[in-house]
Batch of 2 targets.
Target 1
Amino acid sequence: MPAFAGMGLDRASTLRADPAWVARMLAEPATRFIGAGNEGVLVDGADTPVLVRRPLASSPAADAGEAILLGLEDGAALFAVDLETLDSDALGRFAGAGRSVHLRDAGAILPHAEGGLAAYLMGLLNWHRRHRFCANCGAATVIAEAGYSRRCRACGATHFPRTDPVVIMLVEHAGKVLLGRHAGWPPGRYSALAGFVSPGESLEEAVVREVREESGIEARDPFFVTSQPWPFPSSLMLGFHASSDGGEPRTNDDELEDVRWFALDTIRAAIAGDTSRLVLPTPISIARFLLGRWAATAG
Ligand SMILES: [Zn+2]
């Protein structure tokens, strides 16, 4: 399972629609709050880092009408706190000995389920920060469903958290896969091709189009492998594997600096730590997951 997947909370999708239940949960002694700011999540603990969970007493007073409920953890409610909304005193009280860690780093150091929770927290807060006004009429919106939607009292529109689908794919031909690199990446690093899905396009069509646009290679028979929440700020990575009849790849837009085929033994060597021919994408990325999966199963 890629990093950022595997969040373990019960999302309380039905209960969260009841404001009285949410208000009761807010006042429960077992209820905890976790926080994130624009730059990252609050983490505590040196050997086994975890997200900082604070009881109500050290948390900013939350109004049930504005509370963002993440879900239930062993029956206890867990709410989100946007650290950007706190003054420095309140931030100091809430943070305590915790430290802010960028989500990318959190994905690498936290246990799997905690990384998933961090991604969920950041994804939800990112959406609320960017959608305070109605996209339909421009009026201010209010939180509904304890943070799972926002409602516009002026025009009645309901807005749901936005997730932007991105296809990312390994294209295989004759024991090689197609990888590309962006200018500015560390020397030698290549990764899977990827791109946003366009309106009116299936995921499979997006795979074929993106590969064509970024490399000139014709991909075919894409199949879905796995997905990954990627809240930077609101993407969902959809991992595919596709076949191809090969050809000489070429960069034909400004997006990639280089695109080329990499042989299975090169991928396997890179996974084993040999960076002389290829530097792999970061371990928390779905691209790295797709490459590892292929290297473990390819002939
Ligand atoms: Zn409106």
Note: The chain has a mean pLDDT of 94.
Target 2
Amino acid sequence: MDARLRVVIVGAGPAGLYAADALTFDVAKSVQVDLLDRLPTPFGLLRHGVAPDHLKIKSLEKVLQRIIDRPAVRFMGNITVGKDVERSELLDRYDAVIYATGAPVDRRLNIGGENLPGSVSASDFVAWYNAYPECSIDIGPLSASRVAVLGAGNVALDVARMLLISRDKLKSTDVAERALRHLRIHKPDDVYVIGRRSAAQAKFTPKELRELGDLEDVDIIVSPEDLLLSDTDSNTVAQQPQLALNMQVLHDWASTPPKNKAHRLHFRFLLQPERIEGEACVRSLRLQTMDPRDTSLRTGRQIDLDVGAVIRAIGFTGQPFAGIPHDAVSGTIRNVNGRVLSDYDGVDQEFVTGWARRGSTGVIGSNRADATEVAELVLSSAKPIRRDPHQSDLLDLLGKRGVTVVTAERWSLIDLEERKRGTEQGRPRIKLESTREMLDACRVPSRTEAH
Ligand SMILES: Cc1cc2nc3c(=O)[nH]c(=O)nc-3n(C[C@H](O)[C@H](O)[C@H](O)COP(=O)(O)OP(=O)(O)OC[C@H]3O[C@@H](n4cnc5c(N)ncnc54)[C@H](O)[C@@H]3O)c2cc1C
């Protein structure tokens, strides 16, 4: 009998890959990992979230690819758990199941006008410029000359930077072709990054904030009144060097007179979105001013900002899938320290890591510690299940269902095709923008052809 521990990881983003790494790094541990993803490609948000101009972090793909290449790891892309294969079918075949499915859904503002054309979620906008397959957004309103970006975290900074970045700089990245074509022509005059709370409560990291100062032909506008802090905020800033650095960057910008550049990036704080106005599309944004002494209190004063597009970057959440226990408040898979609180009697084979465990906080590196901890938990507690000797291998089951699995070898063909197209234009790669194109690149017949 095969004595290896068989583990399936659902989600081949950074968290899933780091978990696969921790489980297979030491071959003596004798663990076999199947790594599933609903996309034909691995890397999750490293490929489809991280901004194309963040080349250094993007280069992590090379490191993570080495994990996929290990003999003990079997990558299977283009498989959605909950659609192509059920949770119970994984539990029947594997000693442990680790969910690393991220937090893929945008949080909503729940205000009037949110569904108007021109009101776009950050995940849709990011998916559009990062060539997420089959992503379609109405790009027309994004040609607006004035755009509001709601949120005070790094995703809001990414969105603002991508709207204003020099097109020459973008040309040498793997930004989606469709975005490159649009952004070459359209660049807003004014972009407003708007935070609901004070500047001290913003979640920016200093490096990403400071980086905006390098945007060519862009004045950064910050009003000193927007940087007023309550005593509580001032104390917090005094204790947290990251916040102090952010405040320093913002104060530097506030004291720099604008140089009449062609574009402007405005930072506004203490403004809560109340309504997106417009009939056929976004025309303006109504904001409520908040009290700097207690940022949860409204002052009663409203501001109308004349903008033609609103991009919401107020965080991400998970959604229930495949009957896996879900915590609606945190938007995560229900768990205690990475062990899923199973709703099946006697089942203790399920674990969770990454954003699906913690919610949408932390950078790529934060998922490493998390995944290592969960892998240790699996190694110390998972026991070989009593397997039905007639149970088919997952690949056979999927094959019988006509599911076209993208194996590591097939993914390498997609990768090769994207790099080849990129080389022709002096870019690292040109990403394929549809599943059909990807399956063609690895010569997989479509599901209908396969039947
Ligand atoms: C816009 C944006 C920009 C970012 N920029 C940076 C940055 O510059 N630097 C940095 O360090 N961090 C950045 N981050 C954070 C970083 O991307 C996350 O920390 C990290 O991706 C979380 O890893 P994860 O594996 O938990 O989730 P994900 O990366 O989301 O991976 C989850 C994977 O699960 C798959 N999946 C989901 N559901 C299923 C299912 N039912 N069946 C099969 N597969 C499924 C998905 O396809 C996906 O591949 C950014 C995040 C965002 C949103």
Note: The longest strand covers residues 294-305.
